[in-house]
Amino acid sequence: MLSKSSMIASKKSFKPGLFDLGLNIQKKLSSHYLNIDRKQFTHYAEIEPNYIKPAIRNMLALQFFHIDIGRKRARLMLEELISQHPDELNALADLIYVYKEMGREKDANKYKIQLDSHKNNPLCQARSILGQANALTYDWADDHNKNPKFLLKDSWRLFNLEDNHTEQLIKANNLVVEAYKVLNAIPETAHEKKIKAKEKAIEKFEKGIGKLQELNCSKEEISTWKHNLAIARSRLDTWRNREGGNIGTRSDNCIKALEDHSYVIDSLTSIEKLEKPLKIYLAKSCIFFVQLYTSRKHNISNNHMSECVTKKVQNLESLESKAIRLCPDDNIVLQRYGRIKSNRQQYLEAIDIYNKSIEMFPDKDISWFSYSSRRAAYYFHSKNLIDEKSDEAEINKYLTLAYMDGEVCLQSKCTQYCMFQMAQICFERAMPIRNSAMSFGCKNIDFIYEALEILHETLNKRDINKDARIYAELGKYYLFISEYRKSIESIKTSLELNKWNKHYSNCFSHLCNSFMCFYDESKDRNLLSEFRYMLKEAKQRECDKWVTDALKTMKTDFPEMLSNLIENMIEWDARGCEDIVNEILQSGFSGCDDMRERFKMKLQEGNNQESDINGPAEIQASENPESFEYDFFVLHSEKDKEWVNFMLRPQLEEYDNVINFRGCFPSRDFIPGERILDSMLNGINNSRKLLIIFTPNNDNNKWMELFKDVCINSMLKSKSKEKTVIPIILKNCEIPQILQSRVPIDFTQKSDWDRLRMALTVNMDSMLQLEQKMSALSCI
Q: Which of 143, 162, 184 is the last residue of a domain?
């Protein structure tokens, strides 16, 4: 039995119910998502052991509660569940919540008494904790229907109407505040939320199973929960893998999952007569063990595995045959068996297994996983045929089949991966062919446009608009339809999101190709400076091979651009590009010797020819404070100029076709020959907002300090309601005391472009007022 101290601790920490777990369920936008889960959960409830069924039925009630006209159904389900299991704590807590939401306090109090009479029972607590853990294992949809990007676009349209009435401006301003509120309500991506949910599920599983073991519960019950614990570990591993998590952590987690499945296999095998639900659990653990090891064997160390796990690893085929023998017609066993074949690249065998699974359960909502897996098998088999240069008709056959299964998935449980792979299938169906050096073409461009449409639809979903892979694919597809500028900006975003992950060499390669093709088409020398910045970024992030490969391609296919690029580096940033220039000059080409001499002379000069663009002594107020030529002016150190020009500028001026801010950038907008101080004054006076980029580069710069003090005071004292100083912390450094009361935009952890766009749009005196108004709204 549990000790007295442990029972006291559990009273303090234990809270029954599913409604308070932070399980968000999206309604209206993805109603099919709920339909599928209801069908799946109903199907599972029919075959689960009795001690698992309440957990499934609780989740069904939770889903019904969150859809339109579903509260009555949720209430009835919970009441029926409690009539069969009077001590089911999660159902009691959930029903109390439902009654309170319906204003029926009397009924809520009645079930509160029933809950109080059972909540100190250790077995009830253990099963309640395990039910919560089971709920957290699933991938729930995001519950925010409003996308902050759409709200911002609506406000932008109102702000830019020719006849701006006061009511329109107030409405536009409120839309920005609402968008900002939504953005703050979702501080983390869906990936992060799901990883945290799986971590919490594992913690609860371990706690609940520990209580069952202390209470000497049956091996059957402990084994079923151990199986679900292993599933939670696998799902956590999957989400961490998508985020590029630490391989060592994934390895440890995978080994623990194998040990849990091994426990289930050994425990249930030792029982002579198993009921059908437990036979299914035994078969599932056998097949999950094989699939998990097959898919993760390259990431785990056999030296760290226990003896019982090692023995099973040595006899994987016997586990496969055992699973099929125990449950030859079980949908889940067949689905996972097909995945094992796919992991071994035996795609045609996998397809046959998925066909059998779908024939047994043709309902696409129940067999969604089979359709999704078969789509992937068709797609990867066609990729193999492409690599083998097989018959084009055969390739098209499997791509078409993959496309058909993809459409089924998009109409049922439409996940991020479904949409992502569907875009890839469309791209392959376009049959891109390389005609010549860096010249691309395709047989059916409509499929490229469909792929772009699918990817943009994924970006409109709040929970996945920060996925680097989506932006990488967008950049690749834009390259193939010669939309080079869009390709460049998409890939830059991808590289920024994935923190220049070393596995994204293809992404950088596509970026370089876009720059080269764009330059070849436009001969725009401004591209050279932008390209120079990206090459320097790759060098600084120790991606030397990426730079070397890009230079080799340029030397072979675009020698004119390479020559001009070296000229640009020598003229404007010789010291910053020293390693890159040396690498190019060492490879040798026509005119190399002359450039080498000029490069040496430039290095000897010491500083670059471009001087710091800093500051003035006084700023005058604009005669018409509500009329501005620019939306913002950027104050920055010379050393941060390239980030401002090549990262900040495109994100604000080339965001999309609706929101296009107009900024004043010294390197672009100042008129040659004018005094720098005069240009500065004009830029500040004619800008609605002042962005100040804070990095350690600002320190010990007397002009910068003087200009900051003068311009900040002027902006803060301005009579214009729209004049605002917005601090942007690019790198950790000290912020002037005069701005410490202002809410900054912090770029040190992540690039928060959405927040910056909203700050530029909203008509308030300061970001602090915006935060205060947000707080007031949240209390309503």
A: 143
